[in-house]
Amino acid sequence: MPSNLFQNIALIQLIGRFNWTWVGMLVVDNDVGQQGAQIIRAGIERNGGCVAFLEKIHLSYSAQQIKRVVDVIKGSSISLIVLHSPEVHVKALLDAMFDDGITEKMFITSASFIITPGLFSKKAWKVLNGTIGLVASTTSMPGFEEFLLNLHPNASLTYPFIRLFWEKAFSCHWPDGKLDGVACTGQEGLGSEIAQLFETNDLSLTYQAYLAVYAYTHALHSLLGCPTVSEGYLNHGMCSNINDAQPWKVPISICSNSCRPGYRKVPLQGRPICCYNCVPCSMGEMTNYTDADECTRCSSDQWSNEERDRCIPRVLEFLSYDEPLGIMLVIMAVMLSVLTVCILIVFFKNQDTPIIKATNRELSYILLVSLIFCFLCCLVFIGQPSTFSCLLRQTFFSVAFSISISSVLAKTIMVILAFKATRLNSPLRKWLGPTIPRKVVGLCSMFQITICSVWLHRSPPFPMLNSETDSHKIIFECNEGQKLFFYMTLGFMGFLAMVSFLVAFLARNLPGSFNEAKLITFSMLVFCSVWISFIPAYLSTSGKYTVAVQIFAILASSAGLLSCIFLPKCYIILLRPEENSREFLSSSKKRIHFG
Questions:
Q1: Of residues 359, 367, 346, the one with CA closest to residue 571
Q2: Closest Cα partner for 110 from 1, 6, 206?
Q3: Is the pLDDT assigned to residue 117 strictly greater than 60?
Q4: Phi and psi at residue 2, to the nearest 5°
Q5: CB of 115 closer than 8 Å to CB of 87
Q6: Looking at the domain that runs over 324-586, which CATH code has it been given?
Q7: CATH 3.40.50.2300 assigned to 4-133
C-alpha cells in the first residue's frame, strides 16, 4: 500500500485544482487522522485556502458528540468537506446530518474511505450524493486468475484455510464425522464463481499489496544475489549489507522540529540540547539556513525582509528635484523670487515718487534683494546632499534672513526717528540720514556672519547616511555638526524679529503719511508665528520631511514679509497712482496711515 502521505498530497492537489479555498475537515480520531489532518491543512493554507473547522470522528462517539459535530457543520458556510477517515467511523454522522437537513454539502474523501455496498443507509447515501473520492490505481496481475482456479482442498498443507473456504463457498462440509448437510466432494468448480467469491472486479487493495510484496521480494533478491558491483543495491561502489535492510519505515523521534530560515534556536532551560524553541530573528537580522544558532546582522546599507531569511538593500531617501514635493517647493521658490524681482523693478522705476521716498527706498532695496536670496536659498536644500551644499545651506539661509530682519528693524527705527525729528530744533534731525540704517543692517549681519564663521570652523556641517532613524531606509542628510550653532543662528534671528515687532507695535499709532509701523507689526507677527511653529515640527519629523518643513518655513515667513510690507505700496503705485502725490499726502482730509 502506498504511504498515507501520497493520498494526503493528492487531496491537497485536487482541492487546489478546483480552487476550493473555503473547506471543512473531518478526520478519524486516531494517530493516522491527526497526522493526515496536519499535512492536509498545511497544504490547503499553503495554496491560499482556509479551513473553517477541523473536527474528529469515531465510531465510538456518543450521540451527544456526534450532535456537536453536526452543529459545527450546520453553522458553517462551507460547501466542501474533506473526509479523511475509513467509512465505518462516519455512518452515524451521515445519518445525523440527514436528520438535521444537511444534504447539500459535498465530500471529498481519501482512499481509506471505501464505498461498500450495504454498509450505508438510504439517509447516508443522500448525504453522500456528489462525493468525490480517491481510489488506488489498479491493473491486471499476471497469473492471479490461474492461481485462483488452481486452488483445491488437496493443497491444504500449503494453504491451511482452503478447506474452510471451500465449505463457505459451496455451502458443504467435509465428511469428518458430521452427517447433516451436503458433503463436499472436492469436485466443485471455482471457474464460474471466481468473480463473485473474490470480487475480482475491484482488486485495488489486492493490487497494492501485490506491488508491495513484489517490491520487497525483488529488493531481497537483489541483496542476496549481489556478487558484483553491477548487481544489487550499491553503497559507495559496494553491495549493501543485508543486515542494514529495514522491512518497515522507522518512525522519526525528535524533541524539536528544525528551525526554518528566518528563525534561530533558543535552548530550553533544564532540557537536553536537542530540545529548543524557534524564535524569529530580530529586525535587521536574518538566517538563510535551517537550525541556525545565531542570526546574522545585515550590513548598514541593507535590512532584513519580512521573512528574515535574506537582506535587501535599503531605500536611499532625500528630498530630490524629481519627486512631487520637491517640484512643488521649487516652483514656489522660483515664483516668489520672480515676484520679488518684479516688485524691485517697480520700486526702481518709481523711486522718485513720494510713497517710495517716504518709506526709505535704500532699505526697501536691501530688503527686497535679501528676500530674493531667502527664496533662492531654498533650492540649496533640495537635491542630494554634498559637502558644498551642506556648508552653504544653513549659513546662506541665516545670513540672508538676518539681513532681511535687520532691514525691517532699521525701517522701524527710522519711522520713530522721523516722527520725533519733526519738532523744531530737535537733536534727532542729524540722525535722519542713511547712517543709522546702514549701521543697524551692517552690525546685525556681521554678528550673524561671525556666528556662521565660528560654526564652519569648529563644527562644519557634512553629508551623512543616517540608518538609525528608519529601519527600512537610509536617509541621506546633512549633519549640522554641533546643534548649538544652528540654534544660535535661529535664536539671533528670533531676537531681531521680536525687537522689530515690539518697536513697530509701539510706533503703530504714530501720525504721519506712509507710516509703515502697522505693516511691519503685522509682518513680524506672521514671521514669528511661522518660526515658533517650525521648532516642534522640525523636531518631530525626520528625513526629507525635516528639510521640507524648513523650506516651507523659509518660504512662508519670507512671503509674509513681502506681502505685508510691499504689496500695499505696489497697489497704490500701479492701481491708485493719484494717491502717490505730494498734494494728496499733504491733504488734511485724507491722511494715509498704512495698516
A1: 346
A2: 6
A3: yes
A4: -70, 155
A5: yes
A6: 1.20.1070.10
A7: yes
